[in-house]
Design goal:
The chain is built from nine helices and six strands, in the order ααααβααββαβαββα. It has two domains: about 70 residues; about 140 residues, VC0802-like. A hairpin with a 3-residue loop joins strand 2 and strand 3. It is of the alpha+beta class. Helix content is about 50%, strand content about 25%. The chain has a six-stranded antiparallel sheet. The longest helix is centred in the first third of the chain and has 31 residues.
Length: about 230
C-alpha cells in the first residue's frame, strides 16, 4: 500500500507526541522507561496525529526505541559541545549591583543623559522589554539614575545583587543548550537567577548577593573538573 502524500509516519507522530512531554523525553534520553507501557499510553495521541482508527502498539514501541537511541546520540554530542565551551570559559564576579525596571518612555526621552551617567559605572546593562526597560548597574550611580528617570517611573527596584559573567569562546553563540546547562546547575542547588543577559560571548547572570559566591563556586568547580 502506497503512503499517502503528506501523510505523517508513525515515527514522526511519536516524536511530535514526545516533544509535548519533556519529562518523557528526558526519560527516553536516559533509557529508563518501559517502552511497552509508554507505547500503550500514547497510542491515542499518535492515532489522532496520523488520523487512523487503529495501529499496532508494537509499531509505536519500535518508534520509541529508535527515538530513544537518536535522543541519546544527540544529547551526547550536545553535551560534549557545551562542556567544550564551558571548559574554555572564564568567570568574573561583580558585587554591589542593582536592578531597576523603568517605564519605557522615561528612558527613551532621557537616553543620552543615562548613557553619560553609565560611562562612570564599572558595570552597566540596558535591556528593552515590551513596556519597560531594565537597567542593571553599579550601585554607585543609583542616585543619579533615579534622579534622571524619576521615582514615579520606577516599576521595580532590586537591591543587593551580584553579577557572574561567563566569558566564553565565540562558538558559544552556535551551541544550543549552554545557558540551560548552566542554569540547571543552579536550579539543582536551589539558586535563583534574577536576570539573564546574553551579550555576544558573555553570558551574564544576576543573582542575590548572598547566593552569588556559592553560585560562582559551583561554576568554577565545573570548569576546573572539565579541564582536568
Amino acid at each position: 500500500m502506497k503512503k499517502k502524500k503528506n501523510s505523517i509516519s508513525i515515527a514522526e507522530a511519536v516524536r511530535i507526541v514526545i516533544n509535548h512531554h519533556p519529562y518523557i523525553m528526558d526519560s527516553l534520553r536516559m533509557d529508563i522507561i518501559n517502552y511497552s507501557a509508554l507505547a500503550s499510553k500514547i497510542e491515542d495521541e499518535v492515532l489522532k496525529i496520523i488520523k487512523r482508527k487503529k495501529i499496532r502498539v508494537e509499531a509505536i514501541k519500535i518508534a520509541l526505541i529508535r527515538l530513544s537511541e537518536t535522543l541519546r546520540n544527540e544529547e551526547k554530542i550536545m553535551e560534549e559541545n557545551i562542556r567544550g565551551i564551558l571548559k574554555n570559559s572564564v568567570l568574573e564576579l561583580k558585587g554591589d549591583i542593582v536592578v531597576l525596571t523603568v517605564k519605557q518612555e522615561a528612558i527613551l526621552y532621557r537616553l543620552n543623559e543615562i548613557m553619560k551617567i553609565a560611562s562612570n559605572s564599572r558595570f552597566f546593562q540596558l535591556t528593552q522589554g515590551t513596556r519597560t526597560f531594565t537597567l542593571i548597574f553599579d550601585k554607585r550611580i543609583l542616585t543619579d539614575i533615579k534622579e534622571t528617570v524619576g521615582l514615579e517611573n520606577i516599576e521595580i527596584f532590586i537591591d543587593n545583587q551580584s553579577a557572574i559573567i561567563i566569558i566564553s569562546p565565540k562558538e558559544v553563540i552556535k551551541v544550543p543548550g549552554f545557558v540551560s546547562y548552566v542554569t540547571t546547575q543552579f536550579a539543582r542547588n536551589g539558586i535563583n537567577i534574577t536576570q539573564i543577559i546574553s551579550c555576544h560571548e558573555d553570558t551574564i547572570l544576576i543573582l542575590n548577593r548572598e547566593e552569588a559566591a556559592r553560585a560562582y563556586g559551583i561554576l568554577e568547580e565545573s570548569i576546573i573538573n572539565l579541564r582536568r
